[in-house]
Backbone:
């Protein structure tokens, strides 16, 4: 007998107590009983708060209804009635993707902040890595004439960034190391 723990009531139950989720490849995280209660709560929230205006924009991704058409599965609308899962208090309307993203973080603000910090840190790392910068080096003779200019361009780098210029490839490699493709 295969079992699973419901993430709402925390009971360990037989898999038959869980509905298929998404494309049917796995079971929902909550048991059928808890899922029924959640669906009733969601329906009440939707009925109470309705749909946003036609010109509404998702406050997280800043996309409008037209941008979001076809996103959200079987839903008839691109908007979800976002609510606090602990208190069931309505917070506002979000697109399905943004609502799922917040849900995947279990509404845990410190965890979300760490995710943002992680992305920002890795963004800085990529932008400071020699493989990802706009870089140039040139061979310059004794008279100061430049020839043999080599440039490396990265589409992700800041277009206003200064392009460092090195006297030769050796000087460049001393600063940035070996380039890899």
Residues:
């Amino acid at each position: 007998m295969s079992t699973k723990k419901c993430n709402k009531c925390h009971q360990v139950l037989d898999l038959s107590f869980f509905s298929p989720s998404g494309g049917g490849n796995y079971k929902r995280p909550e048991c059928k009983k808890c899922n029924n209660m959640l669906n009733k709560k969601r329906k009440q929230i939707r009925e109470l708060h309705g749909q946003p205006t036609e010109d509404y924009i998702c406050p997280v991704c800043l996309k409008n209804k037209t941008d979001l058409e076809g996103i959200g599965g079987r839903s008839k609308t691109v908007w979800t009635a976002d609510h606090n899962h602990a208190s069931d208090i309505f917070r506002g309307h979000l697109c399905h993707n943004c609502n799922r993203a917040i849900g995947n973080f279990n509404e845990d603000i410190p965890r979300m902040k760490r995710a943002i910090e992680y992305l920002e840190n890795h963004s800085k790392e990529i932008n400071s890595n020699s493989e990802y910068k706009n870089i140039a080096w040139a061979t310059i003779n004794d008279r100061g004439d430049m020839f043999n200019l080599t440039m490396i361009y990265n589409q992700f780098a800041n277009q206003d960034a200064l392009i460092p210029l090195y006297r030769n490839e050796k000087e460049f490699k001393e600063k940035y190391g070996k380039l890899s493709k």
About this structure: The mean pLDDT is 76. The chain has three domains: 1-49, 52-107, 130-176. The radius of gyration is 26 Å.
